[in-house]
Amino acid sequence: MIKYGIMVVFLLAFFCAGTYPAYSQVQVAPILPKSEEIKTLDVNKDGKPDVVYHSDGKYTSKIEADTNYDGQYDITIYTKDGNFDSAEADTDYDGQTDKKFSNVKEFNQWLNEKHPDFEDQLNRPDWQFDLIKF
Fold first, then answer.
1. What is the per-residue pLDDT across 48-104, written as a single tens digit (0 to 9) for each?
2. CA 56 to each of CA 59, 68, 106, 114: distance values in angstroms, whole numbers, following the listed order
3. d(C-alpha 45, C-alpha 118), whole Å
4. What radius of gyration, in Å, describes the C-alpha atoms of the chain?
5. Are 43 and 115 in contact, with CB atoms under 8 Å apart?
6. Model pTM?
């Protein structure tokens, strides 16, 4: 009888302590992502955003562009501390990245040749995006 009493006490302690996940009473706060601000731009004036600027609160951290106006972003530019870091593009619009850039001059040249209507929104000589107000 004592064995059963010890076992019951042990099981109660085990479940009440929250060590068994299915019966745990401990509430864990979810880890929330850093606040991100977004600004959009409609290049072709059709009422749909063609460029999306993502801000980490201090700098623009990522820029996405829909250069063929189909609703899917086909250019993504990554910045670090507001400066160009890298870019990737889906040049055949199949949903897969097929061109990557790590050199800002190479990216700017490609952008000017392939998408001149996006030059003012994506081509920055110094790639300082901390001036965009969100």
1. 999 998 888 788 889 999 999 999 999 999 988 888 899 999 999 999 999 999 998
2. 6, 27, 26, 29
3. 13
4. 25
5. no
6. 0.65
Q: Quote the CA–CA distance of 17 and 23 in Å, as a whole number.
A: 9
CA dihedral 106, 112, 115, 121 (to 10 degrees): 90
pLDDT value for 130: 42
How many percent of the chain have pLDDT more than 90?
A: 31
DSSP codes joined into one string, 40-79 = EE-SS-SSS-SEEEEE-SSSEEEEEE-TTSSSS--EEEEE
Contact 51, 96 (CB under 8 A): no
Query: Residues 87, 75: contact at Cβ < 8 Å?
Result: yes
